[in-house]
Amino acid sequence: MTITNPLRNPPLGDQLLSQLRSLIVRGELIVGTHLVEGRIAEQFGVSRGPVRDALRQLEIEGLVETRKRGVFVRGLSDKDLQELYSLRGALESLAIKETIARLDAADWTPIDEAVEQMQAAADDRDAAKFAAADLDFHSGFYVIGDNRWLTATWALHRPLFAAVLEITNTARDLVPVAQDHADLRDIVRSGDVDAALVALVSHLDGSCDRIRATLIERERAQAAL
């Protein structure tokens, strides 16, 4: 397990949760690893409280599980990933329908800015910034749709998608991916619901396939060690 510098800037719990999530998604904390509260607290330079909170949230996200002897890494399986993207497709389809229903009142500035940020990050080959802008882009549809319950549900899953996208985007040509987002924006903005939903399915299927390929390749590399 790779440990970064001790966490010092508040909120400690959020920082710890983000780092543990990333370590699990990247496979640096392998499936079956026993996550001992005290040991993690010492390694990250935090008290046990934030560790306990982080492990509780990771269990909600399905990345760890509690057994009789403690908390263990469950990881992110291929089945998990497909189910996550199935859920995301359902949520985002509704968000896009509601976005189109509110086109007259829509403020596209955040989405347009996210596309510009993705294009800049693609040129700079900055996977982390690209992933952040990518999720800002998709979150824009929830904001325009103005369904707070739908937005809250997406917010629960966004951090996990952020961790997955960051590792998947590494060492890839992101320019076509940025353009794909721009194309999706334009189709949604056209107001054609059927075309927008078809484009969304294609967009999310492509993202899921790329992530699955990355995770399968990683598993093969680990098995070869």
Commentary on this structure:
The structure is a single chain. By secondary structure, the protein is mainly alpha-helical. It contains nine helices and three strands; from the N terminus they run αβααββαααααα. It has helices at about 10-25, 35-45, 50-60, 80-100, 110-125, 125-145, 150-170, 175-190, 195-225; strands spanning about 35, 65, 70-75. It has a three-stranded antiparallel β-sheet. A hairpin with a 2-residue loop joins strand 2 (about 65) and strand 3. Helix 1 (about 10-25) packs across helix 7, helix 4 (about 80-100) packs antiparallel against helix 9 (about 195-225) and helix 5 (about 110-125) packs antiparallel against helix 8 (about 175-190). The longest helix is centred in the C-terminal third of the chain and has 32 residues, at about 195-225. It is globular, with a radius of gyration of 19 Å. It starts with 11 loop residues before the first helix and ends with a helix.
